[in-house]
Amino acid sequence: MTSSFSSLPPSFSSFPDLDPGPSNSQSSRPNDGKPERRSKKDKHEKKQKKDRVKHVDKSTRRAQDWNTQALLNDEKLKAEEDRVRLEQEGLESRQLDSHPTFYSDRKGDALNVTYGHLHAGDIPKYHPVDRGRSILGLGTAWTVLRKGGKGIEITVGGRRKQPALTDSSSRALLLAAPTRRLIALGDSYKYQEIDGFLRLPSRRGRQTNEAYRAITLTKDNEGSDSQSSGSESDDTASSDDEGPLLTSHQLSLKELEAQLSSEPSLVSIWLALVAHSLFSIPVASKNATKTRAEVTLSVLSRALCAHPGNAKSSILRLKYLRAGEEIWHESKARAEWDEALKLGDIDIWLEWLEWRVRKGAGGVDGFISDAARILNALGDDEENEIDKLRLTWKITIGLQQAGFYERATALFQAQAELTFEVPQSLYGLPLENQLESLEEFWESEVPRIGEPGAKGWASWLSSGSPENNSPPTGRACMNVGGIPHDPYSEWHAAETHGDRTWRIPIRSTDDTNGSDPYATVLFSDIKPLLISLRTQRAKNAFRLIWLSLLGLHVPGFGESLSPGSWDDRWSYIHLLSDQCLAAILPSHDAQKQLTADAHAGVLVGREREYSSAFGPVKEWKHNTFGVLHSVGKEKWRLWTAQDLCSVDEEFTRALFQQLRCGADDCEWDGYALAFEAALNVKNALKLSRSFLSTARDSLLHWAIHAQLEHIRGRIDDARKVYQTVLTASSHRRDEALVPRLWADWAELEWLNRTPDAALQVVSQFAGVEGSSGMMILRAKRNLEDLIATSAGNWKDREALIKLRALIELLTATPESALAVIDSQPVDEREDVRESLTVTSLMLLYHHSITLRSPTPPSLLRDRLQVAIETFPNNTVILGMFLEGEKGYGVWGRVRALLGDAGANEKGVARRVAEVWVAGWEKGRWNSEIERTRSGLIAAVDSERTKGSPIIWRVILEFEIRAGQLQRAKSLLYRAVGECPLVKGEYMVMTIGWDA
């Protein structure tokens, strides 16, 4: 809106009287202010005109009014220009009034020329309210007056309305001589138009551009204020001069940018900047994948160039490559990967192998050739043995998922012969020479490690390389009775059965009923993938990897090989077993929920029923939880009978026997006894006695034997073991493993509900006799001295802390016992801190829940809440947390577990555990379907877990059990795109879809 300003209208000879009609306007003659008499003909014409106007659209009449007013204003502007010109020539001038009379819009209809008539869509840029008397956004002091088609007048202060230009009073003023001076147009025009609007002045005279809104200060102000105001005023001025207020998200970005400007080599800050930059882009939004990738590339490209050390960071480089994969051309991506591989980092090599698989480069043969390239690049250094083992683990799982189970087993059998059964004559020779001799052993087809009657490569060579005389094994046909005679169903059943049972490669002499040419594995198929392992750590890691491949998951082991890695995406294959999936996802019968029963016509609410708080997902840091330690009423421990349903017992038992490295192989024997205890405790005790017969001085073997007696329920036999080993022998208190046995003995007596015996055991270890107050204080002091001077294994120091907390718990309160643990210095190692946290929580859990001692419930719940936020992947803490939540009507804390994890992305174990938690309360699974689905969708969209075949299999099974077959089908196509070499996904396609 623009304005023309004058106190009196300009003087000119005539002025047309325009009315609202589109083209029938008539001129009117001035009558000196007297009312004009109209004839009957005029009144009749006026009535007809009014009837015609009633049918005109309101918007069209409004546009006509504006166009008419524009014509009037044009004439006024011409008159004003003439007056200005006359004033410049020396005519008299008078001072202009300080207040405007009115403001009018003179813009007119811009589409009049285009369409040849007034356009109904040309609406003013303001909105009239209060029946057209006010403008929306203006104060009450401004009043709007309409006068037919003569435009809009805005007056100030509620003045009486001004006469229109066509009134008699206005005609008299138009004929009068000019008595007031007008301001010249151009640069001296007082009111400037801003986007078609005028800034209205205030009657109070307040300035619109206040000084405190200034963005920058002048030099004078800077000079004077900086010297006189001091630090406090400087802070206030700086805060006021920052301009608009920033949101918390913007402030966080600003702080991160400030940190990076001072220290650009901080990788963690760069990762935090990426996370904050992606926070405002929801994953479910349109084009979110491409947009998030572009933002990530923008930030990480800065990071890689900001400091030379950033370019060598594998984390930054991998995030950069993963983001670029979404938008780069394949040639560009290949060039970037080649540049990143020059760093030689194993994590980059493994991700490159994943990228090659996703691109479908050559199928399984291409996968093997790429893996062989990585092994050649890593070299033969002993420092790279763990890295090569991780790669071997990845290769073997890739072969299993592709359906080549026989080749996967053959690879580990040959590697085990090369690692543990090298002949004495070949020690120290190059790997190529050893492989030539191993090939002769392999082609002889004698029993290999894990098979019945296997004696090893060294024994075969020393006995003169005899031929294979064992009878052919053969493979029995599968009984498909009860299966519909459908070719697809029969083929699916046969393949599934073969993948579960036929893992050992067959011999050329075997009578095979199938026609699978890949069941027989030649040495040339696995020779490029064999490596040399010399260190004891690498040999132990190889054995535990093989256990994981067989389905015996060792929690935290993969994390111990490479802290912070994402190997859990493909290494947790035990979660794909049918028994584990059945335990994670409830059956259709368990999904039904009955909220009330009717008794004599009265509804009675049903009691809440829960499953075991300790579920099928087991994960914690390595060695945090003992191999035979148990918790809960169900004696939940490392391996149970349910975990061994899909494990080949004979093959695994032979493996434990043939890979044992002498009588002092305590750790391996512990896993063997845990395996036997999951099947039968009596057999485990027999095996333990056989171990003790050859290792009578091994404290760890005695500790495991006592734990087996405790699991069986023979407390007296377990107590005899501790008494014989600890009191009858002369073992020092600071000797390795001794504090652990004393702690286990004291815990045994405590859980047996004999606190006096437990207190006596702790006092005896502290070197104090008696249970008086003075003796207990002396025992506490001695234990504190032992803790302060302990410098051995951290598990021994943890046992000392446990004994000190237990004596406090037995003689004082749970709060004082927890204070003892909290007073210990915080260790830098995360696994040590997690283990000590679990120890303290187990003491409190047994005290309040197992023994049901009087304890405030909030004491355990609050500590568990903090612990589960600190160590979110620990399922021992999760189980105790769920146990503490039983009986509460509000399930908010449990639901909070299923929410966002913040900056820490959830791993595979945490995601799968959340699916199981949804069905923890019986009959509640249906109400948690949407929450569980959103968590799984977030998992398959997350960069951390979207390439995991485990997550894809879980979400497919979840949708099938939820009855959403169409959704499962669409997810199946995405799963095949992310994991193209996983046979199980193609097998799902053959079961048929009803949707």
Structure report:
The protein is mostly helical and 995 residues long. The protein has 42 helices and 8 strands. The strands form 4 sheets. A two-stranded antiparallel ribbon has the order 1-2. A two-stranded antiparallel sheet has the order 3-4. The model is unreliable at 1-37, 55-59, 89-104, 147-151, 156-160, 180-191 and 205-242 (pLDDT under 50). This is NRDE-2, necessary for RNA interference-domain-containing protein.
Highlighted features:
mainly alpha, two-stranded antiparallel sheet, 995 residues, disordered N terminus, 42 helices, NRDE-2, necessary for RNA interference-domain-containing protein
The tally of strands reads 8
Helix proportion: 40-55%
Structural class: mainly alpha
Largest sheet: 2 strands, antiparallel
Organism: Hygrophoropsis aurantiaca
Protein name: NRDE-2, necessary for RNA interference-domain-containing protein
